[in-house]
Amino acid sequence: RSTLVALGAVTLAWLAFVSRWWIADAVVPWDSKNHFHAMLRFLAASIHAGEIPLWNPVHFAGHPSVADPQSLLFTPTIAWLAWLGPAPTMRMFDLVVFAHLLDGGLAVVLLGRRQGWHWVAAAFAGLVFMVGGSAAGRLQHTGMIVSYALFPVAWLLLEAMLARRSFVVAIGFGLVAALMALGRDQVAFLF
Questions:
Q1: SS3 175
Q2: Nearest CA to 72 among 3, 143, 174, 21?
């Protein structure tokens, strides 16, 4: 029951943080919109035009998006937005990035509880993970945030796999680790 309270507290705090962005009509600035959202818009427009999004003719006067690790082409946890419509909004993009942080924060709570931490300590650790220095300082670098957020999920699944020797959990760990590797950024490779 205390684990559920910790998870609920972190989720409520996440909702409060995200609602502040919505109420202020703000978006994550800089590279998040100038680069990553633009890449997602290109990917979405290409998919809905029936084209293969390997070459982006408008980015840097022509850019091989298939070779760019920051193109989001190989980031399924974000690229699915491109399938929803030809022009994903900035708000939807930010919400998906923020949802990654929630997933990571909840995984940190569960990791803490697995280690026997008090539920308040686990909830605090989850909050620090979601809005602390690394997340806040690099929020505009979408690929790094995705890798950062997937790491505690992978760690949690790895711990559970080793404790239970479960083939199903091993597959889950492999999938999350593969998602990180597909991101091809320095954070993913460090983790």
A1: helix
A2: 143
**Dist. CA 152–CA 38, nearest whole Å:** 28
143 within 8 A of 40, measured Cβ to Cβ = no
Burial class (CB in 10 A: 0-12, 13-18, 19+), 34: exposed
Radius of gyration of the chain (CA): 18
Q: Model confidence over 14-50: pLDDT tens digits?
A: 999 999 888 998 999 988 988 899 899 999 999 999 9
- What is the Cα–Cα distance from 156 to 24, expressed in whole angstroms? 34
Each residue of 83-123: pLDDT tens digit?
999 999 999 999 999 999 999 999 999 999 999 999 999 99
Two tokens at 69?
Answer: 């690790």
Q: Using CB atoms within 10 A of its CB, is residue 10 exposed (0-12), middle (13-18) or buried (19+)?
A: buried
